[in-house]
Known about the structure:
Layout: H1 2-8, H2 16-25, H3 30-36, H4 38-51, H5 55-62, H6 64-75, E1 84-89, E2 95-100, E3 111-117, E4 123-129, E5 136-139, E6 144-149, H7 162-169, H8 175-184, E7 191-197, E8 200-207, E9 210-214, E10 221-224, H9 231-236, H10 243-256, H11 263-270
Antiparallel strand pairs: 1-2, 1-10, 3-4, 4-5, 5-6, 6-7, 7-8, 8-9
Amino acid sequence: LDAWLQSLVGPPIxxxxxxxxxxxxxxxFVSAIRTHTPELLEEIAGIADGxxxxxxxxxxxxxxxxxxAYRSSIDQRESPAKCSSLAVVSSDALTWLAQxxxxxxxxxxxxxxxxxxxxxxxxxxxxxxxxMIGLLGMNSHGLGVCxxxxxxxxxxxxxxxxxxxxxxxxxxxxxxxxxxLLRSVPHATNQxxxxxxxxxxxxxxxxxxxxxxxxxxxxxxxxxxxxxLAASLAASSSGGSxxxxxxxxxxxxxxxxxxxxxxxxxxxALSSFDDPTHPVCRIKRxxx
Length: 288
C-alpha cells in the first residue's frame, strides 16, 4: 500500500491520500460492486480490518485500471503500454492461456498467488499483489481469465471495476457461463478479457458502452495487446492503436500463429525483444 501511494505522487498529484479521497468521492464503483459482487466488499473489509487499515483506502487499492482512467481524465496522461495476452488451443484440446502482467516497478516484490476454496470444494488460483483481490487466474473447472487494457475505449465513473469482474468470472464453471456473465454486468473501464477452458478460448473487448467479441480468423490462436481488434471497435475507437501495442501484437502473431506449440514457445514469445524499442517483454527500470 505504501509503495502504491508513493507511486501516485507526481504532477499534478502532491498528496496521495488527498488524491485517493478525491477519486473515491468523484466515482461510484461501490453501487455496482454491491449489486454484483457483495461478497467481495466483505472480503475487502476483512483485508482492511485484518491489516488495521481504513476500508476506503483498501477499496481504492483494488481499482487499479479505474485509477489510471480517472487520472488520465484529470491530467490527460496517457495510459502506459502494458500487458500482452494470448490463448492457444491445440488439436488435443489442451489450451494454453498466458499473459505478461506489466505493472509499475512499485509492484515488484509484492506479488502473490492466492488459493481460494469454496465450501463446495471448488477452488481458484489467483495471481495478485498484496492486499488486492486479484489480477488474473484460473479455477478448478479449468476456466481461466487474462486481461489487458484498451485505453482507446471509454471509461466511466460507475460500473463494475476490472478486479471484481475477474473474481466473478472465476466463480463460473463453464466458458459459456463466463461469457454470459461478462455480457451482463456494467463495465467501469475499458478492458480486454481473454477467457479459456479446455478446448476453447474467446476474446471480448469491454467498456461502459458494451461488450464486443473479437473473432480472429483462427479461433484456436488468439493474440491481444492494448488496442481494439474487433472491427466495430477498431474503426470507432479514439486515437487508434499505438505503435507499441501494434508491434507487440505482430511479434506474438509472427511467433505463434502456426506450428505445434508448447510452454517453451509461449514463454519465449512473452519474453521476446523482436523490436528493441517496443519489446513484448518490458524491462524493469527504476521509477517506471
